[in-house]
Structure formats: structure tokens, C-alpha cells
Amino acid sequence: MKQENQSMVRKFILIGFSGFPDLQVPLFVVFSIMYLAILAGNIIIIVTIRRDSSLHTPMYFFLALLSSSETCYTFTIIPNMLVNLLRQKATISFIGCVIQMYTFLGFACTNCLLLVVMGYDRYVCICKPLHYPVLMNQRFCTKLVVFSVTGGFLISAVYSYSVFSLPYCGPNKINHFLCDIAPLLQLACARNYIGEILIFLFCILVVVFSFLLILLSYILILNTILKIPTAEGKRKAFSTCASHLIVVVVHFGCASVIYLRPHSRYTLTEDMFISITYTLVTPLLNPVVYSLRNKDVQVALKKSLGRSTCTQKM
Length: 314
Fold this sequence. Notes:
Blueprint: H1 2-7, E1 11-14, H2 24-51, H3 58-75, H4 78-85, E2 91-93, H5 94-127, H6 132-135, H7 138-164, E3 173-174, H8 181-187, H9 193-226, H10 231-259, H11 268-293, H12 295-313
Parallel strand pairs: 1-3
Antiparallel strand pairs: 1-2
Helix pairs in contact: 2-3, 2-11, 2-12, 3-5, 3-11, 5-7, 5-9, 5-10, 7-9, 9-10, 10-11, 11-12
């Protein structure tokens, strides 16, 4: 009976921005520009780190992978959102909805875990500088990345199974511009309390536990920085963490508001605004913050631009 009910909904209608018909074309232009900036910024970061040997360190290795993951994350959402802005009726198949949720949650969870790994990297670098080359060797860094990606997509599989194992036999209008957890749970014909509790617990595991691990890293880092005798030494040590800290606050702040609030407080306009911030602003923030605040990346970019200019002149 469950399979019969579930098969009744074969596609969903994404309401998204249909309530703002006069803004759809302007939003398409603005979001397109932001998406191109995200692609350009993250690709520049990845290429710069790959080409400049001075950036072949664990910190920038993780940054390049975070930029890659952010690029893939936006690719699963934004192109479809842009197309839907120009359509009168935005629809997505049931299977397409499953794939979109699984992939974007997989990359989102991977980003969370990579930020934890980057926090641990900063802890080892500042608190145990003499052991840093040994502890953060290439093999261990690769294991951390494999753990982040595998863990992220395993958690996403649990989320997706818990949501789509519910029967969908009635309304098929999703109050969002993507297939996300909260609006889909509102459409289910039956409540699966165990599944919803499992989803909430995994949200706590990914968002809260990840943030607490990063917070612990920074408490230990701060304790070490305060022991540095010179103001210049303190400033230099903290400057290596500032970019990561800004990205962490924005990333986990948006994720907490979206996934840790009660479903009774879910509203379309508010949730879409926060989701846009999480989908467009956060991926754009990474290359901007790391290129403007990080001197190593700035020097590497200038060197790359200098080489390109010399090549063109020749």
C-alpha cells in the first residue's frame, strides 16, 4: 500500500519565486552574476593553489578541496533554480528531487566536515608547530579528506532515505526553490516520527557537533596565542585563522537557522531568504575572504597574473 501511495506523486512543483513574478527576471540576472562570480572565484583559488608550489601545504590543500566542494554544491542547485526563474511552472520529477537532495546535502555535509578538518589543521599548526609536518603528512591529510567526503554522503543518504521513504500521495507543491527536508516533510501523507527524530539527531550531529569541534580547536588556539609574548607574534598567529573563522560563522550560522529550528516556525519567505544566503552568499564568501585576507594567496595571485602578463608580452 505504501509503494502505491508513494507512486501517486511522480513530480513536484517548486513554488519558489512564483509569488514574486515581477522580480523573477531581475533575480535571474542577479543570481546569474553571483553564480558566475562563485565559479570564477573558486576556480581561481583552485588553480592558484595548484600552480604555486608555496601553497602546497595542508591548509591550502583543504582550502582547494573546500572550493571544489562548494562549486559542486552550487552546481546541484543554482542552474536548475535559474532555469525555473524563466519558466511559468517549475517542476521536478520524483527521482530528480531525490537526486538533488542527496547530492546537495552530501556536499553540504562534506563542507561542514572539511571546515572541522581545517580547524584541526590550524590547531596543530599553532599549538604544535614542531610536530606539524609529521602530524599533518600527506597520507593523513588524504585520509581526512576521504573521511569528510564519505561521511558527508553517508549522512546525506540517511537524510534522503528518511524523507523519501514516507508516502507522498496528496499535494505536490514544494514551498521552496529546491527539494529540501522541511518542505518535503510537510507534503508527506503520513508522519514517521522515528524518521523525523533521526533526521533531527543527524542535523545536531553534523551542525552542532561539527561546530563544537571547531570551537574546541579555537579555544585551544586562543589559549596558545595568549601565551605568545609579542603582539606581532599574536597578530601573525591569529591572522592565519581569521579567514577560516569568518567562513565558519557564516556557514554554521545559516545551517543552524535552516535545519535546527522547529518545523512549526517554517515560513516560505524567511526560509528562502536564508537558503539563498546559504546557497549563493556562503560559496561566494570563501574565495572573497581567502583572497582578500590571506597574504599568501594574494602573493600567489600576483605571481600568476605577472606570469600571464609576461607571457602575453612575449
